[in-house]
């Protein structure tokens, strides 16, 4: 199934009372920037979800730099935005792709399969000279009944079994840029390198100026992977792996999991090896 929506579809449907829009604008370099951009201008009807305040939990010894959020609090925020488990939801960011994909994955994990990512994000929307507003919407509170899809989330122990060669039917994909994958540089995490056995498919190679490349191109990117294998994607903290997850689904891969804690969680266990 294609979970990527174009701006023309959203332009026709953004006033539909059954559609909800979520702005996930964020900057890792300036955590306040996303909210400021939303307050200045956003797609009419869009609610704002912050990567660190809403889409991630508190950082602990394990779990990585952007751990799974408190699901009770996240669901409460969804309900306040008028979103339940069957609402059609369109998520976008400023065009980077990663933050909207993170939200998309979280809603999929909670059991909402009618969540999509806006291709090109807010940048693409603006290029179409489509309507924007600074008005913050208010909705009647919804009742979200989660149905957790555990098959979407890979645990550290599962990743370790793949890395150790105990589970040869699974593939590990490192979504970071090549220099970090090779351990030549590490600007964020305390250790450099990769999870042993992982192959490198940089997440940004699946996009072109914020727009996802066609499904046939995505299939070509992952052509060396057997579709019958289970795939586990990771990055530094589970954010930029999400666009790769989405690209794999668009390419027709069914068995895909996200290692949410990713490399920052992996290195929090001293016994885990680094390649």
Can you walk through the features of this model?
The protein has 275 residues and is α/β, with parallel strands linked by helices. It folds into 2 domains: 4-148, Rhodanese-like domain (Oxidized Rhodanese, domain 1, 3-Layer(aba) Sandwich); 153-266, 3-Layer(aba) Sandwich (Oxidized Rhodanese, domain 1). 28% of the residues lie in helices and 14% in strands. It has helices at 7-13, 33-40, 71-80, 98-109, 121-127, 156-163, 178-181, 215-221, 241-250, 262-266, and strands at 4-5, 19-23, 46-48, 88-92, 115-118, 170-174, 199-200, 207-208, 211-212, 230-234, 256-258. The strands form 3 sheets. A 5-stranded parallel sheet has the order 1-5-4-2-3. A 4-stranded parallel sheet has the order 7-6-10-11, sandwiched between helices. Helix 4 (98-109) crosses helix 9. The longest helix has 12 residues, at 98-109. It is globular and about 50 Å long. The mean pLDDT is 96.
Task: Note the main attributes of this structure.
alpha/beta, Oxidized Rhodanese, domain 1, 275 residues, 5-stranded parallel sheet
CATH class of the largest domain: Alpha Beta
Largest sheet: 5 strands, parallel
Structural category is: alpha/beta
Helix share, percent: 25-40%
CATH topology value of the largest domain: Oxidized Rhodanese, domain 1
> Uncertain segments of ≥5 residues (pLDDT<50)?
none
C-alpha geometry: globular
Q: Estimate nothing, just give the exact number of structural domains.
A: 2
Neighbour order of strands in the largest sheet: 1-5-4-2-3
Distance between the termini: 35 Å
Tell me the Rg in angstroms: 18 Å
Indicate the mean pLDDT: 96
Please report which band the strand proportion falls in: under 5%, 5-15%, 15-25%, 25-35%, 35-45% or over 45%: 5-15%
For the secondary structure, the number of strands is 11
Count the helices. How many? 10
- CATH superfamily (homologous) name of the largest domain: Rhodanese-like domain
Named at the architecture level, the CATH assignment of the largest domain is: 3-Layer(aba) Sandwich
Topology order in helix (H) and strand (E) letters: EHEHEHEHEHHEHEEEHEHEH
């Amino acid at each position: 199934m294609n979970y990527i929506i174009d701006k023309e579809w959203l332009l026709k449907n953004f006033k539909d009372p059954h559609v909800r829009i979520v702005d996930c604008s964020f900057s890792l370099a300036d955590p306040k920037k996303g909210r400021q951009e939303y307050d200045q201008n956003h797609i009419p009807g869009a609610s704002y979800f912050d990567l660190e305040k809403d889409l991630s939990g508190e950082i602990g010894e394990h779990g990585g730099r952007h751990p799974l959020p408190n699901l009770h609090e996240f669901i409460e925020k969804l309900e306040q935005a008028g979103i339940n488990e069957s609402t059609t939801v369109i998520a976008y960011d400023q065009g980077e792709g990663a933050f909207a994909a993170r939200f998309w994955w979280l809603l999929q994990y909670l059991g909402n399969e009618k969540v999509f990512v806006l291709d090109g994000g807010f940048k693409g929307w603006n290029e179409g000279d489509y309507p924007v507003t600074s008005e913050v919407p208010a909705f009647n509170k919804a009742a979200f009944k989660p149905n957790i899809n555990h098959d979407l989330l890979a645990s550290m122990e599962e990743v370790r079994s793949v890395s150790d060669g105990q589970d040869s039917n699974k593939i590990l994909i490192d979504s970071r840029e090549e220099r970090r994958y090779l351990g030549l540089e590490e600007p964020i995490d305390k250790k450099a390198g990769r999870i042993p056995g992982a192959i490198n498919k940089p997440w940004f190679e699946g996009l072109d100026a914020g727009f996802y490349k066609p499904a046939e191109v995505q299939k070509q990117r992952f052509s060396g992977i057997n579709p019958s294998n289970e795939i586990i994607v990771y990055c530094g903290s589970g954010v930029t792996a999400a666009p790769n997850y989405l690209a794999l689904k668009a390419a027709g891969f069914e068995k895909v999991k996200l290692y949410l804690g990713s490399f920052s969680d992996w290195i929090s266990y001293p016994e885990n090896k680094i390649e």
